C-alpha cells in the first residue's frame, strides 16, 4: 500500500517499455511519455507533482516492497525478504545488497531504519504513525520493525511502494513536503534525474549506471501538456510513445474516439479494475439507516454513471465494493440494478412522502425535504448526476463542497486504488475519515481489527472477505463503477508494454516483463563498387536523354518540311502515288492528317485564289 499520500495511492498506470538488454546503447532506446502532471516544483513528497508519482512508481527511489502481483503476493524491492516474528509484533526485513544512492554512498539498513520513523513523523504514513514502536538495525543489511500491536502481517501492505530515503540527505530536512531540488530526487532506483527543461515543459530521467538490475531503455522523458487532447494529438503525430496517466481516467469521449478512430494510436487496458468514484453514507442520522441506503442505491442508474465517470470499459459494481479483479476480491453478489418502485417504497417507509403531490417529498415535519450531497474535489459533476437521478424518486438534493456541513448523509469521493483493493476500509475506522470513518458498529470494527491483526496471509484474506460481506449487507459505501485504466500508446513504437494499476515503472525483478520495439536499421554509406556502378548508370541515362532530345528536334524539322510541301498543290498526292509517302503510311496516315490539318481549309482556299489571280495577270 502506498505511503506517500492519497493521490499517489493510484500511482502511474503505464508500465514503461523496459527489458533486459545486452546490446549497445542506441538513441532509439529512449521513451517519450506525455503527462498533464506539472513538472515543478521538484518535491518528491508533495501531493500533485510529477515527482510524487514517480516516487510511488519506484523510478527514482526504490520502495521497501513492490506492488502485489496478480496472486496478491508483494514483490521484493529494496527489501529482498521479510519475516513476521514475535507473534505479529515484529517484521524482519533484509536489505538488498549492491544498491547505491545516485550521489555515490551505498544503501544500508540505516537508511531503511531512518526512513520509516521519518515518514511516520512527517504524516506520510498514517499506519506507521499509529502502530510503529521503533526500528532496529541488525548488521549492515537487516532491520527489525517493531509495532505496538500484532499488525506485522498487515504492515506489509503499507510498506508496498513506500520509498526509502537517503539518510545522509533527508536527516537534515525538517519538512518533507517543502524539500525541493535535485538533492530531493536522489534515490537508488533504476533512473536518476537527468535534466528539467528551462521552459518547465518536461523532464528527463537517465538510466542509473550502477543499478544492479538490467534496464532496457537509456532514458525516459516526461513531456508536459495542459490537456489530454494535446497529448493525444502529439501521440498521433509521433511526438510521444505513450501517455503516463498516473492512474487518472482519461475523458470517456476521448477514449471512445480513439477506440473508433484507429490510426497510429493503440489503447492498452489494465486487467486490474479500480473504483471510479464512490458514494459514502454517514454513520449517523438518516445515512445510518440501511433502508435509506438501499433506497438511494436502488434509485441510481449505475449504467449511466459508469458511462459518465469511467472509461467505456467500465462495469456495474457489486454490493461488496471491492473490484472483482483486485487481489483481495472475494466472491460477490450480482451487480446493482435499478429498482425505482422499491426505492419509492423504502423512502415512504422512512416517512419521506409526497403529501401535496408537487413531486417533492416532505420530511416528518411536513416541510419539503432536501437531501445534502457533499462532493469531494473533482467529484462535483458526479454528485450532480446523482442528485438528478434522485429526482426520479421525488427526492430533492443539493450538492455542496465537502466540509460545508457537519455529518452530511451522503458524500461522493475519489477512491485510492489500495482502498478499493482492501474493501474500501484502510483509513476508515483505524486511521481517519476516509469513508465511513465515524463508524461505530461493533461488528464492523471487529472485522477491521481482524484484517489489521491477521496472523498470516490466509487469515488476512478471510478477514477481507468478511469485510466485503459487511459492505454488501450494510452498504456503508457504494462503488459507482468498476473501471479499467486505459492508456493510449503509439502503434509505431508499441512493443508489448504491460499496464499496472499501481505501478508506473516496474522495479526489481519486474524489469523483464516488457520490451520496446527494436530500433530501425541505421543509415550507412554504400560500398565504393556500388557507388561506381550507380555513377555509370547515371551517365548512361544522361546520354540516352540527350539522344532522345536530338531525335525530337529532328522530328520537328520533318514536320516543318511537311508544312512547306503542303503549300505546293498536288505534291503530297504525287508523292503518295510514287510510293514516297512510306513514313506517312507507317504511321497509319496520322502524320498526313496532322500536316493537312495544320493548314485550315479556309486559309488554303484563299491561298489557291491568290495563285489563280497571279496566273491570270501573268
Q: What is the level 1 CATH name of the largest domain?
A: Alpha Beta
Percent of residues in β-strands? 15-25%
- Per the CATH scheme, the topology name of the largest domain is D-Maltodextrin-Binding Protein, domain 2
Strand arrangement, major sheet: 8-9-10-1-11
Instruction: Please give the domain count.
Output: 3
CATH superfamily of the largest domain: Periplasmic binding protein-like II
- Count of separate DSSP helical elements: 20
State Rg.
Answer: 38 Å
| Shape category | flat
Helix fraction?
25-40%
What structural category characterises the helix and strand content?
A: alpha+beta
Question: What is the correct CATH architecture of the largest domain?
Answer: 3-Layer(aba) Sandwich
**Beginning-to-end CA distance, first to last residue:** 122 Å
Q: Give unreliable regions as ranges.
A: 1-28, 426-437, 496-521, 556-599
State mean pLDDT (0 to 100 scale). Answer: 75
Number of strands: 18
Q: Note the main sheet.
A: 5 strands, mixed
Structure, described:
By secondary structure, this protein is an alpha+beta fold. It has three domains: 6-272 and 484-513, Periplasmic binding protein-like II (D-Maltodextrin-Binding Protein, domain 2); 277-480, Roll (Dipeptide-binding Protein, domain 3); 529-617, no CATH class. Helix content is 34%, strand content 16%. The chain has 20 helices and 18 strands. It has helices at residues 6-9, 50-57, 109-121, 126-131, 152-159, 167-170, 228-236, 252-261, 290-299, 302-309, 340-349, 380-390, 417-421, 442-452, 457-474, 528-566, 571-577, 582-586, 590-598, 601-617; strands at 30-35, 65-68, 74-76, 79-85, 90-95, 132-137, 142-147, 191-196, 202-207, 219-224, 242-243, 265-275, 278-281, 370-375, 396-401, 410-413, 477-479, 482-490.
